[in-house]
Amino acid sequence: MSFRARHLLGIEHLAPDEITTILDLAESYAELNRSDIKHGDALKGLTQINMFFEASTRTQASFELAGKRLGADVMNMALGASSLKKGETLIDTALTLNAMHPDLLVVRHPHSGAVSLLSQKVNCAVLNAGDGRHEHPTQALLDALTIRRAKGRLHRLTVAICGDIAHSRVARSNIHLLGKMENRVRLVAPPTLMPSQASEWGVEVYGSMDEGLKDADVVMMLRLQKERMDGAFIPSEREYFHRFGLDAEKLAHAKPDAIVMHPGPMNRGVEIDGTIADDINRSVIQDQVEMGVAVRMAAMDLLARNLKAARAGEGVLV
Q1: 59, 93, 138, 146: which is the annotated catalytic residue?
Q2: Using CA atoms, how far apart are residues 237 and 269, in angstroms rounded to an integer?
Q3: Residue 55 burial by CB count (10 A; 0-12/13-18/19+): exposed, middle or buried?
Q4: Is 108 a catalytic residue?
Q5: 3-class DSSP assignment, residue 108
Q6: Which of 65, 166, 229, 248 is the most buried (most CB within 10 A)?
Q7: Half-sphere exposure of 197 (CA within 13 A, CB side)
């Protein structure tokens, strides 16, 4: 298998064959998760610590479930009552954790680059579960696996990513991944939610849903990141839904077999109409949740293999 990374900090530095390696292994874990016996032993004897400096339901739950299904000892840090609330720095926290000899560290943090900094201070494998506006690599990987399973391929597709591009780490990771896999990527958003440099990212930029969704194979809606907004980016939720929320009329501009995605949590009636989100013929939103566990199992399995090899003095990790 082609995967030599020590950490999974983002998609930007992964090669296409490494992405394929993760997705191929995740396919086998997707099948395992649908079987009667859902447990493996790839992480048996290893310790996984989940550190979520931001609240999360889907990501934290799926990382915890992924680790337990692979046999790891999993600990979730209660950060609300931790030393961080007492003024401890991220580096001091990293050094403290490192002294406990964990093997896998899963981190979500509100500041871009914080997870990368932490990875430089520990001796274990670090997985980025989302850092600020930077990246969310496992979300892009689970999106890719969902697309590949629904469409039968992950190349030469037209993918429209719609909504709050400016504040979305999900959008950034997907732009990197879909571009590496030779897809046509469109960004659709109002000017206030479209980064000024977006046209330099090798994507097409649209300010209209009708134009941006025309003949799209995949329609990926994004959540309004209100917690990262420091001003009025939209006139009102009602107006936003009228112009940029996905409904049947806008979706009709995409291909008849186009799939609909959303990383969750959804704001129904704001980003997406509830009937579209629940349409079993078009929506793959629940498939994304399912593939999240499989992808995180695959990522931790591969990082654990590299960690064991490094500890045994076999090869050099990057």
Answers
A1: 59
A2: 8
A3: exposed
A4: yes
A5: strand
A6: 166
A7: 2
Q: What is the pTM of this model?
A: 0.94
List pLDDT tens digits, range 154-210: 999 999 999 999 999 999 999 999 999 999 999 999 999 999 999 899 999 999 999
C-alpha to C-alpha distance for 110 and 108, rounded to whole angstroms: 7
Of the residues 58, 111, 149, 268, only one is catalytic, namely: 58
Q: Which of 69, 108, 169, 253 is catalytic?
A: 108
Judge whether 89 counts as a catalytic residue.
Answer: no
Tell me 227's DSSP state.
G
Distance in angstroms (rounded) separating the CA atoms of residues 264 and 273: 14
Pairing mode, strands 158-162 and 125-131 = unpaired
Q: Is 145 left (phi over 0), alpha (psi -120 to 50) or beta?
A: alpha
The whole-angstrom distance between residue 83's C-alpha and the CA centroid of its chain comes to 28
| Residue-level length of the chain | 318
Q: In this structure, are residues 10 and 176 in contact, taking their beta carbons and an 8 Å threshold?
A: yes
**Catalytic residue flag (residue 93):** no
- Residue 74 sits at the vertex; the CA angle it makes with 72 and 76, to the nearest 5 degrees, is 165
